[in-house]
Amino acid sequence: MSVIEVRHPLVRHKLGLMRAAEISTKKFRELTAEVARLLAYEATADFPLETVRVECWSGPTDIEQIKGRKVTVVPILRAGIGMLDGVLDMVPNAKISVVGLARDHETLQPVHYFENFVGQLDERCALIIDPMLATAGSMIATVDLLKKRGCRDIRALVLVAAPEGVRALAAAHPDVRCWTAAIDSHLNEQGYIIPGLGDAGDKIFGTK
Ligand SMILES: O=P(O)(O)OC[C@H]1O[C@H](OP(=O)(O)OP(=O)(O)O)[C@H](O)[C@@H]1O
Ligand SMILES: O=c1cc[nH]c(=O)[nH]1
Ligand SMILES: [Mg+2]
């Protein structure tokens, strides 16, 4: 299964709060960061550990630490920025790469307008962040860009996914795992997820 719906009660509760029609920008931003933090926790659960010996207060002691893991967090502009602080709380040493994509409202195809990747992508785990996986066009385009630069360990974190997007991402990139707080019902004719969250970028940036 390449899309993993996180069933943790905290995730389900917080995502439920985000669905309120009259939610304030402040509350939506706070909950976006909180759910992002929990998704990052889940998505990093298989990071390998190594044992090292340190000088503890009581003498030499073996401790575990994450083994040589280079991470880049990849927010998809704009809305992905809303998840960035939450994910960085969990992986504070990660480098940040940025991809700018905006969906054309008529065709629903992603239009590429910016990219800035950190180096050594072939050695890094990439955590792509974007609140919404609708048709998955934006996510697939971002994975394409990362793979072209040699990145092999690519993971995605989204708040809400549509079944259409889940299928499209699995077909295009079966090796990419995606953690989501919810797989919703369907896309409407305008390509919005139902019930969804509405326009996540507008809600995070206050541009409704
Ligand atoms: O799965 P898809 O069909 O590609 O749709 C999802 C994309 O649409 C939204 O961004 P949008 O294009 O609205 O840009 P914004 O973040 O600047 O608002 C969302 O944040 C995703 O990036
Ligand atoms: O439901 C959706 C689909 C795409 N982008 C959003 O912000 N919301
Ligand atoms: Mg938007």
Automatic annotation (TrEMBL):
Pfam families: UPRTase. Coiled coil: none annotated. Binds 1 Mg(2+) ion per subunit. The magnesium is bound as Mg-PRPP. GO terms for molecular function: GTP binding; magnesium ion binding; uracil phosphoribosyltransferase activity. Its EC number is 2.4.2.9. GO terms for biological process: UMP salvage; uracil salvage. Belongs to the UPRTase family. Residues 7-207 form the Phosphoribosyltransferase domain. The keyword Amino-acid biosynthesis does not apply. Its cofactor is Mg(2+). Allosterically activated by GTP. The gene is upp. 5-phospho-alpha-D-ribose 1-diphosphate binds at residues 78, 103, 130-138, 199. Keywords: Allosteric enzyme, Glycosyltransferase, GTP-binding, Magnesium, Nucleotide-binding, Transferase. Pathway: Pyrimidine metabolism; UMP biosynthesis via salvage pathway; UMP from uracil: step 1/1. This is Uracil phosphoribosyltransferase. Catalyzes the conversion of uracil and 5-phospho-alpha-D-ribose 1-diphosphate (PRPP) to UMP and diphosphate. Uracil binds at residues 193, 198-200. GO terms for cellular component: cytoplasm. It catalyses: UMP + diphosphate = 5-phospho-alpha-D-ribose 1-diphosphate + uracil.
